[in-house]
């Protein structure tokens, strides 16, 4: 299956789970009653439901809010949301406090200094790519 077809299946499933029939007329009415931009046509929502197109991000946000689903899950599927949560959990790990603190300090630097620091980091990264074994946390060991 392709990305558009998978999106259409997730959209239909979300509509049914929210208690709405998965019909273009319903999607058109409900979407247009919530969207502040230009109204979408019956043909446009039919294309979303048939897997021929995917709505733009602003429209996807409105649909997700209406159907009470995460926009990422609607657009990319539950696997993507799980991967995002997993990455977020790694970042929140207290063991990475010093790295988060260093990144915050880096982001607070003026542009010129950030460029120099970035070049130094990249030089270290290239030098560290010499087949060093990785530890449990994925970091290179000495």
What would you note in describing this structure?
By secondary structure, this protein is mainly alpha-helical. It has 8 helices and no strands. The chain has helices at 3-17, 24-34, 42-50, 57-67, 71-76, 78-92, 97-108, 111-127. Helix 2 packs across helix 3 (42-50). The longest helix has 17 residues, at 111-127. The termini are far apart. The mean pLDDT is 86.
List keywords for this structure.
mainly alpha
Any chance you could write out the topology, listing elements then pairs?
Blueprint (H helix, E strand, L loop, with lengths): L2 H15 L6 H11 L7 H9 L6 H11 L3 H6 L1 H15 L4 H12 L2 H17 L15
Main beta sheet, described? none
Distance between the termini: 45 Å
**Global mean pLDDT:** 86
Order of helices and strands: HHHHHHHH
Q: Classify the helix fraction into a percent range.
A: 55-70%
Number of helices: 8
Radius of gyration, CA atoms, in whole angstroms: 22 Å
Extract low-pLDDT stretches: none
Number of strands: 0
Strand content: under 5%
The coarse silhouette is elongated
- SS-based structural class? mainly alpha
């Amino acid at each position: 299956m392709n990305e558009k077809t998978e999106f259409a299946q997730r959209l239909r499933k979300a509509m049914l789970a929210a208690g709405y029939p998965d019909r273009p007329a319903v999607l058109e009415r409900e979407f247009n009653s919530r969207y502040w931009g230009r109204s979408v046509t019956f043909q446009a929502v039919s294309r979303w439901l048939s897997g021929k197109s995917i709505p733009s991000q602003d429209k996807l946000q409105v649909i997700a809010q209406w159907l009470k689903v995460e926009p990422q899950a609607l657009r990319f599927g539950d696997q993507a949301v799980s991967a995002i949560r997993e990455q977020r959990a790694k970042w929140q790990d207290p063991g990475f406090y010093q790295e988060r603190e260093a990144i915050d300090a880096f982001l607070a630097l003026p542009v010129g200094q950030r460029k120099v620091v970035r070049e130094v980091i990249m030089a270290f990264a290239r030098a560290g790519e010499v087949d060093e074994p990785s530890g449990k946390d994925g970091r290179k060991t000495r």
